[in-house]
Amino acid sequence: MNIIESLKIHLSNFGENYPNLMNEYKTNGMHTPDLNFNTWKGQAEMIQALEIKSKDSSILELGCQMGIIPHFFKEHGFTDVDSTNSKIEAGTGLDELENSWRAMNLQVDSLHILPKEEFVLRKKYDYIIATSTNILWNSNRLLQIHKNNLYYDYYILDKNDVAHTYFVPYDEEELKFFVTNIKKYLTPGGKAILHGLPFPYFMPQFKKELEYLEDNTTIITCDNFPDTSLTSDLKQKTLFTYFIIEGDK
Fold first, then answer.
1. Which of 48, 137, 155, 214 could bond to 167 as cystine, CB 3.0-4.6 Å?
2. Which residue stretches of 109-201 are H helix?
3. Which residue in 233, 245, 243 sits closest to 184, CA to CA?
4. Cα–Cα distance between 214 and 195 in angstroms, integer?
């Protein structure tokens, strides 16, 4: 199956094929998911790299947001599709997400992954997908001081209402823990794709982390960057680089 072309058609025809879903978004006050394929092109290329062999393969998406990817798989005949999302991070937007999941007939498990804390999944999977994710951020170590007060915060609006997000990437030990943990839930030869947005490990201060990932995963940078306005090669690589973890055979 060509994931890229299939997802492009799925999104292009979404409004026509799923009028009841579109009506749900409107009547429940939800924002409509971004159905522009250019938004999803990079993720589609990453999922294509998994080379999913069978529609009976077990698939899990970590951090499904409004559910576009698991809905896509189910509507294309995949029989074993699960999904998770952090209800803690969803915050006040949780009701909107849950309305979307119900409308798509998705059962989404609540999962909030923290650094060096073991997480548990339902079962082993052939493919685990986490794209445009902040799973590999350790924001617990990020503090802000303002007017002599100390805050745990990673998101601010400046005086021009421009948003700024700050994060601390997983260090080497945190990456090791995560890779070991997720391998427990991969079938022999199964694959997990992790696309941290951004991928920070090309920066010189993360040399040890990059070496660990090079030795223990497969690092890939998308061939065709969706956003052609990104003129810096490093900027492109940080936004469209991911790695694949393989299950022990």
1. 137
2. 172-183
3. 245
4. 15
In the block, residue with structure tokens 């999977």: 125
Structural domain contains residue 97: yes
**Cβ proximity of 86 and 64 under 8 Å:** no
- 217, 181 Cβ separation under 8 angstroms: no
pTM: 0.91
Q: In a 3-state reduction of DSSP, which class is residue 201?
A: coil
182: Cβ–Cβ under 8 A, 6 or more apart, which residues? 128, 192, 245
Indicate whether 161 belongs to any domain. no
Residue 63 sits in a domain whose CATH number is 3.40.50.150
- Which 3 state secondary structure label does DSSP give 101? helix
How many separate domains does the chain show? 1
Is 151 part of a structural domain of the chain?
no
How confident is the model over 88-109, as pLDDT tens digits? 887 777 888 888 898 899 999 9
